[in-house]
């Protein structure tokens, strides 16, 4: 028995010797130790030097009442469980003592010897259960306290909701991220507190908490998303959401964890800037020589064209050559602008085949590395920022070249691929669908297995003079495009870098075919401070069928726009140069035009500006954006869409 292994001491407090002897015999047979006190004073004296696990207390003692003894024990800070012994007719008093904490009571009659052992045993079992429960509660309290301290100190925002999506908990960081206290938010729908602003999470049905409630599965996306609060503005975050389940697997609610990515993205931007400086030094050496060669081709073909102009024979051939040289010159300047520009990618469909071939050829000019291209003509169009993706390709090609100091072959191949949900989970991508898979396969020294996990870490390099920024920058840019880069290598057998980019299931087409020109009609207002640009755009748009009016600054543009409205002959669209040194530029001009006509249709044009990232043009009210130098057909198509009432904002960049 438990009592035999762990003997308990029972103190009998009674002045009836015969009853005491009977009780002692009953309890001794059950393995209990017993002690005796014949009065209240004796009990107090004994307890001052001994310890009892249970008191059997007669309420009517010779020197004091049992209630008085219990009070004196309490004053001495003794908290010993007790059972009341009472005579016939004292049951009401015994019940009163039960209300004051007695564990049980029994009556001095013939049933005492049969009932007492069971009552004592049951009492000790209750005490043991209570002690165990107290330990569990203490452990739970400690765990809750530690959990509360942990949740309050971590840098992630933690929210919990019930099975209806109503908030049941928020930690300190969650309050900071949303600028709403838990007391204010408790019971509110989660989507009213954690407000995602970007597609597809902006709708209630797509909110992570409701996705988990609907499907019962955790969400751990890789891409960052945007939340907004009235006072703190937009904040980039990554999140995870998991179901909270009961014992039988029933859904009780959801825990949503948000991590603020602001500092992380700022660090990525700083790394991007540092990498630009390093790569710029590599580009500068070849720019002047290559650019002069291209200008020679442009000027030479234009000179020949002038000589042949009288007969028009072969004129198109020479002009085409000049145009192609111009496109290659533009590609060079685009490389430089890539380093000068920052911010979010300005995405458009890209002809990845042309971009890879031109960027790789440019990066390897004059080197001992030979590049083999396996790029089918039917490749889908990649969705990306041309300058930034060009930089990624440049960095990967340069990395392969540096891995082969004695020269070798670099193979670049690409395929169209549809990625399933299982595939994007394995590759840590955001959404399933069409992607372009681009592989860079070198014959270099390979990468040791131990350092493969660090290959994209900032400032990590195995090269004596490497900065460790090229690959980390490429990784950052690709992640901003919702793609990924993975690497595989066996030491001594080269390495393969595989790039996955979101794509459109359409073939990338060149826009330099005159057949792609989109003709139009209506009045167009052009504002640019450069006379040659005004003359060029006037000729282009006039050829397309538009009535063109050109001005040199914003003040003049506003005056002309207002006069046209007053004459009931409004402009169909305006093309505004973003930056006009010393005078009103495109952004302020549009702001003032909108006061005259809130529905003004405007395109912003820019060669370079630190003032506004072109990817944000729609935030300033522009319906489209165009980067200089632009192609005739590109401008024609963009202007056609704007004047025909396309509602979605549009953009184009100069394409190679």
What do these coordinates show?
The chain has 4 domains: 2-133, Response regulator (Rossmann fold); 154-260, Beta-Lactamase, CATH 3.30.450; 266-507, Histidine kinase-like ATPase, C-terminal domain (Heat Shock Protein 90, 2-Layer Sandwich); 517-652, 3-Layer(aba) Sandwich (Rossmann fold). It is an alpha/beta fold and 656 residues long. Helix 11 runs antiparallel to helix 12, helix 11 (262-308) packs across helix 16 (470-480) and helix 14 runs antiparallel to helix 16 (470-480). Strands 11, 12, 13, 14, 15, 16 and 17 form a 7-stranded mixed sheet that branches. Helix content is 43%, strand content 22%.
Give a brief description.
With 656 residues, the protein is of the alpha/beta class. The protein has four domains: 2-133, Rossmann fold (3-Layer(aba) Sandwich), CATH 3.40.50; 154-260, Beta-Lactamase (2-Layer Sandwich), CATH 3.30.450.20; 266-507, Histidine kinase-like ATPase, C-terminal domain (Heat Shock Protein 90); 517-652, Response regulator (Rossmann fold, 3-Layer(aba) Sandwich). The protein is elongated, with a radius of gyration of 41 Å.
Helix content: 40-55%
Number of strands: 23
Relevant CATH superfamily of the largest domain: Histidine kinase-like ATPase, C-terminal domain
Gyration radius, to the nearest Å? 41 Å
**Ends distance:** 91 Å
- β-sheet strand percentage: 15-25%
Helix vs. strand class: alpha/beta
Secondary-structure blueprint:
Blueprint lengths: L1 H4 L3 E5 L3 H13 L3 E5 L2 H10 L4 E5 L7 H10 L6 E5 L4 H9 L4 E4 L4 H42 L2 E7 L4 E4 L1 H7 L3 H4 L4 H4 L14 H8 L9 E5 L3 E13 L5 E10 L1 H47 L6 H26 L7 E3 L1 H12 L5 E6 L5 E5 L1 H17 L5 E12 L1 H7 L5 E9 L28 H11 L3 E6 L5 E13 L15 E5 L3 H14 L2 E5 L2 H13 L6 E5 L8 H11 L5 E5 L17 E4 L4 H12 L6 E3 L4
Parallel strand pairs: 1-2, 1-3, 3-4, 4-5, 12-14, 18-19, 18-20, 20-21, 21-22, 22-23
Antiparallel strand pairs: 6-7, 6-10, 8-9, 9-10, 11-13, 13-17, 14-15, 15-17, 16-17
Helix pairs in contact: 2-6, 11-12, 11-16, 12-14, 13-14, 14-16, 18-19
């Amino acid at each position: 028995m438990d009592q035999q292994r762990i003997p308990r001491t029972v103190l009998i407090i009674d002045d009836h010797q015969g009853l005491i002897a009977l009780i002692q015999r009953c309890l001794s047979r059950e393995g209990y130790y017993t002690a005796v006190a014949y009065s209240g004073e004796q009990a107090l004296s004994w307890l001052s030097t001994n310890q009892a696990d249970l008191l059997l207390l007669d309420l009517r003692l010779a020197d004091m009442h049992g209630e008085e003894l219990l009070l004196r024990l309490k004053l001495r800070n003794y908290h010993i469980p007790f059972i009341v012994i009472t005579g016939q007719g004292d049951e009401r008093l015994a019940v009163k003592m039960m209300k004051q904490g007695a564990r049980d009571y029994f009556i001095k009659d013939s049933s005492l010897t049969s009932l007492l052992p069971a009552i004592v045993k049951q009492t000790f079992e209750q005490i043991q259960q209570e002690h165990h429960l107290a330990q569990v509660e203490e452990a739970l309290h400690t765990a809750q306290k530690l959990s509360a301290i942990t949740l309050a100190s971590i840098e992630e925002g933690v929210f919990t909701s019930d099975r209806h999506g109503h908030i049941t908990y928020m930690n300190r960081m969650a309050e900071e991220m949303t600028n709403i206290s838990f007391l204010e938010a408790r019971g509110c729908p989660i989507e009213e507190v954690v407000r995602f602003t970007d597609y597809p999470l902006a709708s209630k049905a797509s909110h992570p908490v409701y996705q988990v409630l609907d499907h019962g599965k955790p969400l751990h996306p890789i891409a960052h998303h945007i939340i907004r609060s009235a006072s703190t503005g937009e904040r980039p975050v990554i999140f995870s959401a998991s179901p909270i389940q009961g014992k039988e697997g029933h859904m009780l609610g959801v825990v949503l964890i948000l991590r603020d990515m602001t500092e992380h993205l700022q660090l990525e931007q700083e790394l991007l800037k540092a990498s630009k400086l390093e790569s710029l030094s590599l580009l500068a050496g070849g720019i002047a020589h290559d650019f002069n060669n291209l200008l020679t081709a442009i000027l030479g073909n234009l000179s020949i064209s002038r000589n042949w102009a009288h007969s028009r024979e072969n004129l198109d051939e020479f002009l085409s050559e000049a145009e192609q040289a111009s496109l290659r010159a533009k590609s060079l300047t685009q490389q430089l602008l890539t380093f000068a520009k920052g911010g979010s990618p300005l995405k458009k469909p890209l002809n990845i085949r042309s971009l890879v071939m031109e960027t790789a050829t440019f990066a390897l000019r004059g080197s001992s590395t030979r590049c083999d291209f396996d790029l089918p003509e039917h490749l889908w169009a990649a969705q990306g920022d041309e300058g930034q993706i060009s930089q990624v390709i440049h960095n990967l090609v340069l990395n392969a070249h540096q891995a082969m100091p004695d020269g070798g072959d670099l193979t670049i191949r690409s395929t169209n691929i549809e990625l399933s949900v299982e595939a994007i989970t394995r590759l840590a991508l955001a959404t399933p669908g069409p992607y372009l898979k681009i592989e860079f396969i070198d014959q270099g020294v390979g990468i040791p297995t131990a350092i493969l996990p660090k290959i994209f870490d900032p400032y990590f390099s195995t090269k004596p003079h490497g900065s460790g920024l090229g690959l980390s920058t490429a990784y950052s840019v690709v992640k901003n495009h919702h793609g990924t880069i993975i690497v595989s290598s066996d030491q001594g057998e080269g390495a393969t870098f595989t790039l996955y980019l979101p794509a459109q299931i359409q073939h990338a087409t060149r826009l330099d075919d005159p057949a792609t020109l989109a003709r139009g009609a209506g009045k167009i207002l052009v504002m640019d401070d450069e006379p040659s640009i005004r003359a060029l755009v006037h000729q282009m748009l006039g050829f397309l069928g538009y009535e063109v009016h050109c001005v040199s600054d914003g003040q003049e543009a506003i005056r002309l726009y207002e006069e046209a409205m007053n004459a009931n002959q409004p402009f169909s669209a305006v093309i505004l140069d973003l930056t006009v040194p010393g005078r009103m530029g495109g952004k302020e001009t549009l702001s003032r035009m909108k006061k005259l006509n809130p529905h003004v249709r405007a395109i912003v044009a820019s060669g370079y500006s630190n003032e506004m990232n072109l990817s944000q043009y729609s935030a300033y009210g522009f319906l489209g954006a165009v980067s200089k130098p632009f192609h005739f057909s590109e401008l024609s198509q963009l202007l056609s869409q704007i004047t025909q009432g396309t509602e979605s904002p549009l953009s184009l960049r100069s394409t190679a």
